[in-house]
Every structure is written in C-alpha cells, then in structure tokens.
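Progress note, sequence design subtask.
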C-alpha cells in the first residue's frame, strides 16, 4: 500500500501549485503564443480546414467541432485505492483534536 502524505507534505504541494499558477502559463505568454499561431496560419484558414474535415465526416473533427459549439460533455472518473480498496483522506485541523478522516465507500464489482 502506498504511504499516505502527511498534512505538512500536502500543504507544501498545494503551496507549490499556487506559486506555479496551477500549471497555467501567464496571460502574456498565452497571448504571445496565440499571436504567433495566428501569424503562421490565420484562424479563418484553420476553421475552414476543420469545416472541410467535418464535411468528410472525420470523427476527430466532428468531436472537436461539437466540443467548441456546445461544450464537452461532463466526464466522470471513478478512483479507487490500491487493489480497488477505498481511498482514505486524513488531515489535521490545526487544533488539539485528533485528525479527521474520510473514507470513500468502496462497492464490490
């Protein structure tokens, strides 16, 4: 069974994610990339090529087209621990009380 993170480790990981802006590039860098892409190939040309692929009924193009038109459907994923066991989360509230624990129910397959 993998070891559980301590409260301090979890807080440290969370703080590092926040410092990195959650893994997202800064707005200025995203704008630079968008400008460079648009100079290399104008957006209208890209949309025209995508429309041609949709008309040829290419599944990747239809999926992308509807994804932008109506939004992607909600994707759900079921997570389990090692060997299909329940996932146990523990944390310290910072008070003198014992750690709180949540155990997700695990249904037999």
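Output:
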């Amino acid at each position: 069974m993998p070891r559980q993170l301590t409260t301090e480790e979890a807080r440290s990981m969370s703080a590092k994610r926040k410092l990195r802006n959650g893994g997202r590039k800064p707005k200025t860098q995203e704008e630079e990339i968008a400008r460079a892409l648009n100079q290399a190939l104008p957006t209208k040309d890209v949309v025209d090529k995508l429309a041609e692929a949709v008309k040829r009924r290419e599944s990747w193009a239809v999926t992308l087209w509807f994804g932008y038109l109506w939004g992607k459907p909600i994707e759900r994923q079921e997570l389990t621990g090692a060997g299909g066991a329940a996932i146990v989360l523990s944390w310290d509230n910072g008070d003198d009380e014992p750690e709180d624990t949540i155990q997700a129910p695990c249904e037999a397959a």
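The chain has four helices and two strands. Work on this subtask will continue into the next period as scheduled.
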